[in-house]
């Protein structure tokens, strides 16, 4: 999957990784521009984990994003209407997400996805964030 118009999962909105990518996918889907391969996982996987971390309902996020709410405003709304999170919580979330797929329960999924994408031999891809970036044509960050 190349040239998908979403930012890297490692890119931050405010101090939070992945959140902006979830918003990008919501916007692309609303505009009819989300590639079919991405559609089955909307609101699931990392989207679900992100909303659970923030303590908000994915469908409420979708509704607000469709109204044109900007990234920072959406994050502010999530924080005002969801779970209170400390700076430490955010740090742990960011590091946890950044390392997903590296020696954890989704490692087999990462291995399968790499094989399916013809990247099985790319040993520098150790996490899902790295895989997503490589799969979408971005450089892999360590």
Helix/strand order: EEHHHHHHH
How far apart lie the N and C ends? Answer: 21 Å
Report the uncertain regions.
Answer: none
Number of strands: 2
Query: What would the average pLDDT be, to the nearest integer?
Result: 95
What share of the residues does DSSP label as strand, in percent? under 5%
Question: In which order are the strands of the major sheet placed?
Answer: 1-2
The portion of residues assigned to helices is 40-55%
Radius of gyration: 15 Å
Number of helices: 7
Q: Overall 3D geometry?
A: globular
Which structural class matches the secondary elements? mainly alpha
Largest sheet: 2 strands, antiparallel
Structurally, the number of domains stands at 2
Features:
142 residues, mainly alpha, 2 domains, two-stranded antiparallel sheet, 2 strands, 3% strand, globular
Tell me the layout of helices and strands:
Layout: E1 12-13, E2 16-17, H1 19-30, H2 45-54, H3 58-66, H4 71-81, H5 87-98, H6 107-116, H7 128-135
Antiparallel strand pairs: 1-2
What does this structure look like?
The structure is a single chain. By secondary structure, this protein is mostly helical. It has two domains: 1-84, no CATH class; 99-142, no CATH class. It has seven helices and two strands. It has helices spanning 19-30, 45-54, 58-66, 71-81, 87-98, 107-116, 128-135, and strands spanning 12-13, 16-17. Helix 1 packs across helix 3. The chain is globular, with a radius of gyration of 15 Å. The protein starts with 11 loop residues before the first strand and ends in a 7-residue tail after the last helix.
């Amino acid at each position: 999957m190349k040239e998908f118009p979403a930012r890297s999962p490692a890119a931050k909105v405010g101090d939070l990784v992945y959140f902006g990518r979830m918003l990008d996918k919501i916007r692309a889907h609303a505009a009819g521009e989300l590639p079919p391969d991405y559609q089955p996982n909307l609101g699931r996987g990392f989207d679900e984990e992100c909303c659970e971390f923030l303590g908000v309902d994915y469908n409420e996020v979708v509704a607000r994003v469709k109204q044109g709410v900007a990234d920072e405003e959406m994050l502010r709304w999530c924080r005002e209407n969801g779970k209170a999170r400390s700076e430490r919580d955010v740090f742990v979330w960011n590091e946890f997400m950044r390392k997903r797929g590296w020696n954890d329960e989704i490692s087999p999924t990462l291995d399968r996805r790499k094989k399916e994408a013809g990247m099985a031999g790319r040993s520098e891809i150790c996490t899902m964030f790295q895989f997503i970036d490589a799969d979408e044509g971005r450089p892999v960050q360590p």
